[in-house]
Amino acid sequence: QVQLVESGGGLVQAGGSLRLSCAASGRTFSSNAMGWFRQAPGKEREFVAVIRWSGGSTYYADSVKGRFTISRDNAKNTVYLQMNSLKPEDTAVYFCAARIRTIAFVNTLQGPGGYDYWGQGTQVTVSS
Question: CA-CA distance, 119 to 128, in Å (whole number)?
Answer without folding.
Answer: 28
